[in-house]
Amino acid sequence: MQGALRSGKFPDGHASVSETSARVRRLVEPLTVPVLSVLTALLVGAGVIAAAGGDPLAAYAGLLEGAFGSARALSETAVWTTPYLLAGLGVACAFQGGLFNIGAEGQLALGAVAAAWAGYGLPALLGGTLPAALHVPLTLLCGATAGAAWAAIPGWLKTRTGAHEVINTIMLNYVALNAVSYLLNGPLKDPTPGNVIARTPLIAESARIPVFVDTLRVHWGFPLALALAALVGWGLERTTLGFAIRTVGASPDAARAAGMNVQRTVVLTMAMSGALVGLGGAIEVTALNHRHELGFSQGYGFDAIAVALLGRNHPGGVVLSALLFGAMRNGATRMQYLTQIPADVISVIQALILLFVAADGLVRRLYRLRGGAAPLTLTRGWGG
Amino acid sequence: MGSRRLAFVTLIVAVLVGAAALAGAPRVAAADVVVSMIATTLAVATPLTLGALSGVMCERAGVVNLGIEGMMLSSAFFGWAGALYASAAWGLPPGASLAFGVAMAIVSGGLLGLAHAALSVTFRVDQIIGGTVINLLAVGLTGFLNRQLFFERTGPFGGVVPRSPGVLPRLHLPGLADLPVVGRIFEQQPITLTAILLVVVAHLALFRTRWGLRVRAVGEHPRAAATVGIDVRRLRYESVILGGCLAGLGGAYFTLESVPSFEPLMTNGRGFIALAAMIFGNWTPTGAFAAALVFGAAQALQINLQLFRDQIPPSWSFLQHSSIVGLLPYLLTMLILTGVIGKTTPPAADGKPYDG
């Protein structure tokens, strides 16, 4: 009876007020906590800057100017965003499958080293030169494969022995960093006479990803990363494999009962995650540095965890959070130049963002928000 | 600890010590190398022992602590900064400065423990993410404060790192340290000796006191514990804060006992290896200590091979790359986690938020 009355009041074709507001709420709701988290982290960060004797307003003005103030600033923001986006996508993929990939740092380094090797060594190996149309994709493929193989190890160990991927991905970070240090000081070291730096030779011209404009560093890797984000989003939502990944992530038991091959999915998820991260490292080499040098990765791999969580492990969200992180890292240099506040303060703010996103109950209590999504559960103890 | 795993620990430590003796053989008497290996093993195992004890304390109460690495890193910094302030700004003598530094390290570890407890007990954040938050926060905060306090012209010391009060002195244990040949093993610095003592204390506290029984009950079956009147949240807070203090003392080892300086990221994954030691030690203080010794021996071998690097035969020359031998502890951790040396069982409610 009531339903009939209501439909009489609101003829077909007109959304009721409550329906519209529900739609708005559905659109705004997932953004509320991340946005409030970022604002809160910036506020606390201002406190830290003030406590350290700096002027927070001047610092943040410098940050904004450095990130968006000119064509060059925008270009640099895109350059910084690219590895964050790919590494963040990789970590988010693993999270979707119920796996915690803390090994992005190592996968990134190996992807970079493999790409550097393919960039300078592959033409000679295949006898002569390669056309760029072939060499660039091959180089990127090498980087992605290295990352995928490295990440697949903890996935395989988890399915085979039950060893938790959290510790194994962390251990493989240290193994990778040690191995890369060995390679760059030994077999892959730039043989140029007088070179004392642990780095590879420059990659061939044919392996380099081009820039858009000669005067700016922004390169084709950036749109490539954006396209991959769209592809990953589509793959997770619309393909069988994507469905399997999400089901295993939500409940391995349910997936098993439904006849899915959980073990294979776990290994594939880790490999996909590592491929995206490794590609991030490969693009840094082929588009930006044109070689791999020891210690280029300044914690991208760990920040990628924050990028993924801030983006709620959703590819679209990851694009936004990677842009935020890229802008902050890029702007920090200008901020330090203008205000003498160490750029490291950005790391504090980023950790605080992760804190508030993770402790979403804290933010909700702080701003008296009601309701909320179910808390994110990733881990079921060490037993997996 | 099962006999199989005890045999494994003994075997690995023996192999590593033997390898060092072999590498040093042409230059130094084998007995001296063995004694120095054991002494170094005990010393470098210290942060692992304390980190693993921290893990045991937290996880016995049902809280996974992935933030041990970050707790140790920030304690290493705050301990060091505290000692520097005490000696350079307040003019305290070196001994008092170092003691103040150790206290600062323990307090900062305890505060991060409190933060982790708040995240995982009160806000019921996924505990692995909570630990990751603490790790990232520690990296950012120590990097920022280190630069701001000691390397900026606007800082309190005008951008010049003040003279450090050095490291904690070796203690001469009367009787034991006077023994011929092996006496050197017992000449250790205070945090190393305290860590060994704390293994015993933690064992007694967990398995011989009412409090320990309650902690274990909370980690196994919190609901059952609650029905007999145990305050689950309170006990979890206590254990995690205590665990933070233990990790804090482990952090003090890096800057107040090992070397008198702070480097960003200097804990280098020791907090994570400590977690593996805890798992291998089956969540017991004594087992964790034995496992920490395995990693300590691997690291001691690395240090000793550096010493004897010019004596390594040419066919083994890749061992001269410190990065190759540096892989040992990490690979060992992975091997141990595969369970080839026997499965271990975590507390039943480990990692699960309690919502009673």
UniProtKB/TrEMBL annotation, chain B:
Domain of life, per lineage: Bacteria
GO cellular component: plasma membrane
Keywords: Cell membrane, Membrane, Transmembrane, Transmembrane helix
Main location: membrane
CDD domains: TM_PBP1_transp_TpRbsC_like
Record localization: Cell membrane
MF term (GO), any: transmembrane transporter activity
Sequence intervals crossing the membrane: 33-58, 70-92, 98-121, 128-145, 190-207, 239-256, 271-297, 318-341
Any Pfam family hit: BPD_transp_2
Keyword ATP-binding: no
Keyword Transmembrane helix set for record: yes
Classification via InterPro entries: ABC_transp_permease, TAT_signal
Topology class, membrane: Multi-pass membrane protein
PANTHER family in alphabetical order: GUANOSINE ABC TRANSPORTER PERMEASE PROTEIN NUPQ (PTHR43370:SF1), SUGAR ABC TRANSPORTER INTEGRAL MEMBRANE PROTEIN-RELATED (PTHR43370)
Name of the protein this chain belongs to: ABC transporter permease
Organism: Chondromyces apiculatus DSM 436
